Amino acid sequence: MLLNPKGGCGKTTIATNLAAYYAGQGFLTALFDHDAQGSSTRWLEMRPESRAAIHGVAAFQNPIGVTRSFQLRVPLNAERVIVDTPAGLADPHLPNLVRTADTIIVPVLPSPIDIDAVLSLVEALRRVETVCKYGVRIAAVVNRVPAYRSGLKPLEMALETVGLSVATRLRETRRYPRASARGIGVNELGGIGRERCLDDWRPLWAWLENGKGHEALTPEHQSRPRLFPDRVAAPA
Ligand SMILES: Nc1ncnc2c1ncn2[C@@H]1O[C@H](COP(=O)(O)OP(=O)(O)O)[C@@H](O)[C@H]1O
Ligand SMILES: [Mg+2]
């Protein structure tokens, strides 16, 4: 689940790129779009038929004659489920949605406003019982990193203070809007700079896959980045 109530930090970009990556790897992949703006859904509509198929669920829609649980059903054979969420997500929607996730990625931009937003988000997550209790895996992805990686220090220090690990840093590049406009991921876009761009993704793919399976959710497991309960004291 891509989560950050701040708009424009890269939720849709990371959701669609992960979906393209997993589908390309041969996994049956579903992409849930909870944002009424429908950006992930539009991306999927643009996706060329020649590319690996992704099962889209426009979760923000409320079609007449269809129950909510039927609309939100996860295809039985889905192997990877990516959930894009809207900006401005707050109580009670945030905890309700978060409860359905086993892994949370928080995209964050290296700007002062975004630092404040991510600290509030961590506070909100600390109040969600399932996150504290079952050690849902969570990591930040620092997005739109400038070429010289300047200005990252304040953000990374703030993340460390609240115990949020950084799964990877994605550089700022035109490849993202270019791929997005064609319904593909940066892994499906050729040209100069492809490998360098994908190098940014490898740590995230590895982090996601190393934790797959049930053992990822047991609080006893200390070896992988988790926000709760070993790094941050859960509320009394
Ligand atoms: N690493 C990046 N480099 C360049 N542009 C980016 C990058 N990440 C996101 N963008 C662009 O920033 C804008 C906002 O990203 P988006 O994923 O839609 O954010 P959110 O879903 O959190 O609102 C989009 O136009 C997207 O193409
Ligand atoms: Mg979005």
Structure description:
There is one protein chain. Helix 5 runs parallel beside helix 7 (153-161). The protein is 36% helix and 14% strand. The protein has 236 residues and is an alpha/beta fold. It has a single domain, classed as Rossmann fold (3-Layer(aba) Sandwich), CATH 3.40.50.300. Residues 212-236 have low confidence and may be disordered. Strand 1, helix 2 and strand 2 form a beta-alpha-beta unit. Strands 2-1-3 form a 3-stranded parallel sheet, covered by helices on one side. The protein is built from 9 helices and 6 strands. The structure holds adenosine-5'-diphosphate and magnesium ion. Magnesium ion is lined by residues 11-12, 35, 39.
Quaternary structure classification = single chain
Q: What is the mean predicted local confidence, pLDDT?
A: 86
User: For the terminal residues, how far apart are their CA atoms?
Assistant: 27 Å
Shape: globular
Structural class: alpha/beta
Which regions contain 5 or more consecutive residues with pLDDT less than 50? Answer: 212-236
Strand content: 5-15%
Strand adjacency order, main sheet:
2-1-3
